[in-house]
Amino acid sequence: xxxxxxxxxxxxxxxxxxxxxxxxxxxxxxxxxxxxxxxxxxxxxxxxxxxxxxxxxxxxxxxxxxxxxxxxxxxxxxxxxxxxxxxxxxxxxxxxxxxxxxxxxxxxxxxxxxxxxxxxxxxxxxxxxxxxxxxxxxxxxxxxxxxxxxxxxxxxxxxxxxxxxxxxxxxxxxxxxxxxxxxxxxxxxxxxxxxxxxxxxxxxxxxxxxxxxxxxxxxxxxxxxxxxxxxxxxxxxxxxxxxxxxxxxxxxxxxxxxxxxxxxxxxxxxxxxxxxxxxxxxxxxxxxxxxxxxxxxxxxxxxxxxxxxxxxxxxxxxxxxxxxxxxxxxxxxxxxxxxxxxxxxxxxxxxxxxxxxxxxxxxxxxxxxxxxxxxx
Length: 376
Hints:
Number of strands: 13
Helix content: 25-40%
Structural class: alpha+beta
Pfam family, one: Acetyltransf_6
InterPro entries: Acyl_CoA_acyltransferase, BioF2-like_GNAT_dom
Mean pLDDT: 92
Distance between the termini: 55 Å
Oligomer: single chain
CATH topology of the largest domain: Aminopeptidase
CATH class of the largest domain: Alpha Beta
Number of helices: 13
Domain BioF2-like acetyltransferase: 185-327
Strand content: 25-35%
Shape: globular
Protein name: GNAT family N-acetyltransferase
């Protein structure tokens, strides 16, 4: 493409200078994800980047310009283990190496430049002169696989699928509900009938923006923590038990991203018994983490809250609801469409790097299995 220039930003000053063009690019991309925004990534770097004597995270934000306009950005961390330039191991991966706070870590790009921004992985692999570098490449399965198939300098060691489920709000709630399968229809009837039978009045609360969210965030954390203790269901950790994770949410609330944050609350007779955090992304709503009071589990209140949010989405004129990633039944039962992302662990394509990379992956899996067994 004519007049296309690429740069790698390596300083925080350069990072901050990207704010205006990055936010402008956000307005030009359809189906923007919260994790692609400047504010999410700037807050992430401020909270999660690490620097010590033998471990140092450095910025490697790949940018692409067309006639001086930012058309693609791919924020990467360049993590060295060792004495900086004399590192023994390096890991270059997208921002978001956290315990599932950043769920989808893909570049932000105008459609015509999706393949071009991925080519910067090839440039980064050529910079390796000493030690082993592991590269983590994440994109839609189609684009990531095509890039690796056409760039032999990168060797994939392992792949992981990341399904992302999307509900299209094409009609209205009655027609949407009519099109659902029998099991979810029966589940919805049970939810509402059981509440009516016990004379419990339902109200959906919608708290939006900095002040309203801050006022209710501790209730959300408490309900999320309660959800983590639930048995005989899909297990989820308490993601916000860690102080840094709460600090990250506060950093988002202290940025322009705060206008996107919504807390939905399901009230029964005035008591908040279930909550879900979500992000307003134009005509799309991204559903994030949730929690509920286990004393009300018999009413399937999370299903009720989900149904209430979908109905709210129709009233707001939303086009899509992003149910987030992971193939559990709480998502698939709504018969959503799916976007398949893929995560590849790669090394530079040489025999000793391939062999060493495979060994490191095996050791990492053994340590993970050992830690899991120790906790049981």
